[in-house]
């Protein structure tokens, strides 16, 4: 177990991003070793996400990454003989007056890039979801938006990667990594690994993984909580609905609802467990917009928590690390990793094999933006 292992690329993290990247690298003929700290894949942010996929973003690169990924998830049965669990239940954004102009500009961008998005007046949106319309200028609806099964997608990509020679090492955290003579040497509890390239796809742990290599990558973990209701008395298929005025969201999951709201006051860190103190503030704003929430029950045993991997501008960090040979970042998705993984796997493989991503221009997401002042805050963060 302690012999030295060599590869062309070490991918750190076997969540959905790492799995998609390993598949695409192996597909291009590279020898890939995938190092996962946990006892099984998809046990971090991937497995604890709310599983939404959407095209409604304000930055073109985010729209393209998400839209191309959604199209791949939709085609999973034809491409890979597996069902990605894709269900186009839709995303409905309720937009306050102050954000309406910016939101309409986002719709124009999304449509220009080929993504289907509809603009609805409040009364048409109320036919989809009953809500109090005060302060709402209008709504946008993405009919191709919806949900996938993150576990199934991850395991499909891993199967495809391993069929092409990739090796998966579980319970193998990266303890330290150093670069010398064109090769990265990574120490793990099971010995040393060597490869010319390391892809940092460690999710919420990406900042820590970088520090173990002597690097600073601005990715921090922030806890997010998903609350779950009991079965509805009158089952109804709700799209993933977001009240942008308060940040509260919900969607159907079988006979239940999932709902939540980001806590802007919670500092970064690996806090564990459901934050029950955040339930009352979440319900307070939910009831103001959706009074029918008063008739719902809560299943405390079904609620869960996970981590967003957050960056300063809520955009991922993709591509080669400037001045650091062989280090490639694929992290910091700020809650959007599941919906962008399929396309990210391709662009990271291009970055490694071809020297630069070319199917999608990811220059706005490169690390250098933090030093050139070219950061652009993604406005559509839930």
Automatic annotation (TrEMBL):
Residues 8-350 form the FAD dependent oxidoreductase domain. GO terms for cellular component: cytoplasm. It comes from the Bacteria. GO terms for molecular function: oxidoreductase activity. Pfam families: DAO. The chain crosses the membrane at residues 7-26. Keywords: Membrane, Oxidoreductase, Transmembrane, Transmembrane helix. This is FAD dependent oxidoreductase. It comes from Marinithermus hydrothermalis (strain DSM 14884 / JCM 11576 / T1).
